[in-house]
Amino acid sequence: MIAGLLHFFDVLVATVRDVLPIVVIIFGFQLFVLRRRIPNLPQLLVGFLFVIIGLALFLQGLEQALFPIGKLMAEQLTASAFLGVDTAAGHQAPDWRYYSWVYLFAAAIGFATTIAEPSLIAVAIMANQVSGGTVGIRGLRVAVAIGVSVGIALGTYRIVSGTPLHYYIIAGYLVVMLQTMVAPKSIVALAYDSGGVTTSTVTVPLVAALGLGLASNVPGRSPLLDGFGLIAFASLFPIMSVMAYAQLSEWYGKRIRRQPSGSREE
Amino acid sequence: MNFAEVAVVKKLLLHLGSSLVDSIKDLMPIIVVVAFFQLAVLRQPIPNLADILVGTALVVLGLTLFVYGLKTGLFPIGETMAYGFARKGSLPWLLAFAFALGFGTTVAEPALIAVVDEAARVAAAGSMIENTQVAIADYANGLRLTVALSVGLAIMLGVVRIIKGWPVHYLIMGGYAGVVIMTGFAPPEIIGIAYDSGGVTTSTITVPLVTALGVGLSSSIHGRNPLTDGFGLVAFASLTPMIFVMGYGMLL
Questions:
Q1: Do A66 and B58 lie within an 8 Å CB cutoff?
Q2: Is A4 buried (19+), middle (13-18) or exposed (0-12) by CB count in 10 A?
Q3: Which of A138, A234, B54, B223 has the smallest C-beta neighbourhood within 10 Å, fewest atoms?
Q4: Domain locations in chain B?
């Protein structure tokens, strides 16, 4: 208990140190450049305090609960013994079909961690406010999570099969270009942002552990060259899924003659 | 406490209560996935169950407080400053603020420090740089400044885009083309790290602030639509580091 509290204190100090430059920049510009009184200052300060304490608790909880078991599971699921892969049969990489549990785990953990990603929640709340409720908070987050899920599953397949990363990225980039031309203009910027926010606090550590575990266990793969790249998949595919979500809801809206309601609050 | 204070506290508690339910819903998928794979697929008991339960409770509580603080602190300050700059009408100061926000939030980012240290070790192991303490520290610091600089420039460019009203996809497409071309030329060891550096720059506190800045700017400038023009800053901030880090890997 005492050790836990001490550790929480460390995390809190680290979070404060993380936030400090932002606070200095904001208040510096507000006081010396804009020279305006900040409206609702007490409320803002309470908000900042909540952000810092909330983030510290969140990180502490992740380190204590989710990361150890998630990383352990990633290692166990990619172990040759569990998958029944015979590694003794030379350095030839085994058939990709042996790894179906890995793809399933990748898809499931990609979806689940994205739903819990705080920066995505922030962007979704903002998009909901700005669009006057047309972009649903839950709808956007589920769309992004589906994208991450497909992306990471495909990324693990790439590590197993050993195909070059840039083929996938270039193909994905072409699809994104095509979609950009046909998707509703209002969603394009939001879709690109969704790609950037998915790879954050919750997703990156678990996905990186999965990639490194897989690359060190599949014969013929090097953790250094093949272990990375899952993050790139996780930020490319949400762009596609969000644009697809917008196209679908536009089509649906036209058919029903009203927008589907996907918002959960406000 | 007088009556008004009681009412405020009651409202706050009610709000936190409903956010708490939302946070539990947000965490549910992770719990289900972990439990299913641990119990049904790996067929093993969950280790340190008490630790994990306490940790999960902390995550739920933390997420609830964070989202509340987001709505009362980060979003309002970001939008207030955007309106302030729009009223002041000074482009150089706005750009200076955009750069400072991008650079300042990235340069001290712990995730970035971890990634550049890793990159420096990889570079030393691949004998791209001398395998000495000084050379490694220099390389790591140079890389960290490169990434922070690229994020600062990205936010600045994004703000210019909002003011000028350029469509976001031209810049993003150009950026992706840049990433693809650089991937072809950069040393293979740096590529994975470059892609990772794009992910670590968009931290949990930077994203809401930068989003609020973009949305606030585009709603206070006549003729800009907050949805079409306000978003896109985060996308720039995760794209430019990839290009700059690969460039850094090619130069050194």
A1: no
A2: middle
A3: B223
A4: 1-73, 90-251
